[in-house]
Amino acid sequence: MKDTNVLKKIKKEFKAYREMFLPEGLSTEKQLEMYKNMVLTRVFEETVKPLWMENKVIGYFHPYIIAEAIAAGVCANLRKTDLIGSTHRGHGHVICKGGDINKMMAELYGKEEGYCKGRGGSMHIACMDIGMLGATGIVGGGIPSAVGSALASHVKGEDNVTVVFHGDGASNSGVWAESVNMAAAWNLPVIFVCENNQWAIATQINRVVRETDLYKRGIGYGVPSFQCDGFNVYDIYETTRQAVERARKGEGPTVIEAKYLRVLGHHATDDNWYRDMTGIEPYWELDPIKRMSEFMLEQGIATDDQLKAIHEECKKAVEASVEYAENGHFPDPDSIYDYVYANGEIIK
Ligand SMILES: Cc1ncc(C[n+]2csc(CCOP(=O)(O)OP(=O)(O)O)c2C)c(N)n1
Ligand SMILES: [Mg+2]
């Protein structure tokens, strides 16, 4: 049963809240694709956590849980040849861009069969076959590379768009300002998607920033800039659709702030000791998967059976990915220096 009082309170507090709406021309097929990508990301991460506790998944992992609408809504507008840059919280980005979850899971296990042959782990998944330039553990590190990628598309005369996901914390790094300014001055086809979850580890945004609506910064650089409800897949889809259209037409960059709230800890075992969770837990009312499923059922876009089948399909796919990773092989210790240096070929 919906707790309407809690919802009312959140709507008031969460200024970026927007009611669900159906963007014109958005097909049912596309909606189901976004829904499936959100569910797949959720199931993938819910499965990874216990595996991490068992030490099967090695290295850190930062859950994207409750942010799935951002990756799903953005990537639904992208072609395979478009490019994305990611962060330390990047599982959703890979999955929604069409990544192979078998290779992702094997990478998390540190196995040779993984996307980066087990050398990268969760924070360094790169897969150029789907245009995923790479996740990075360096906060803000993906932002200038994305501008470089957009410059490459421009120079080659291709109409590909590059999207770079980054956090609110990352947008305080100097390189954000330099990158947005250069993209604006050179009119490059890049979209800066700030996933504003209002926290950077244990630092709440209003302790370090006076203007907490971060999209406003883009306006100062002469860039079309928008804020959307990060829990609302339709809002994200539509805002990105317009940004992609502009970029492909040669009209340059866009800044999008997708505002949400990080309800889990920063990483897998962060127990949120530094914040009062009583104001945070209620945000589960805005769970993007729950909101989208309720909307699709209310509007007659999908049936309960269809949605249940999607959940079942995702569960099976993730189970299969665990089996794939379990059956994989650890790299030979003698190969530790392989892939550290490029072999000197000039890539054209
Ligand atoms: C250059 C750099 N500084 C500091 C860190 C440590 N660090 C890791 S994640 C993080 C917070 C990032 O916050 P945000 O950009 O908002 O992303 P979120 O984790 O909230 O998704 C920090 C400071 C880092 N990895 N890289
Ligand atoms: Mg953050």
Chart the SSEs and their pairings.
Layout: H1 4-13, H2 28-53, H3 68-75, E1 83-85, H4 91-96, H5 101-108, E2 132-134, H6 142-156, E3 162-167, H7 174-185, E4 190-196, E5 199-200, E6 203-204, H8 205-208, H9 216-219, E7 225-229, H10 233-248, E8 254-259, H11 288-298, H12 304-326
Parallel strand pairs: 1-2, 1-3, 3-4, 4-8, 7-8
Antiparallel strand pairs: 5-6
The chain binds thiamine diphosphate and magnesium ion.
Magnesium ion binds next to strand 5.
**What's the number of helices?**
12
The CATH topology, please? Rossmann fold
Low-pLDDT runs: none
Taken as a percent bin, the fraction of beta residues is: 5-15%
Radius of gyration: 20 Å
Helical content, roughly?
Answer: 40-55%
Instruction: Please name the CATH architecture.
Output: 3-Layer(aba) Sandwich
Short structural summary:
The chain has 348 residues and is α/β, with parallel strands linked by helices.
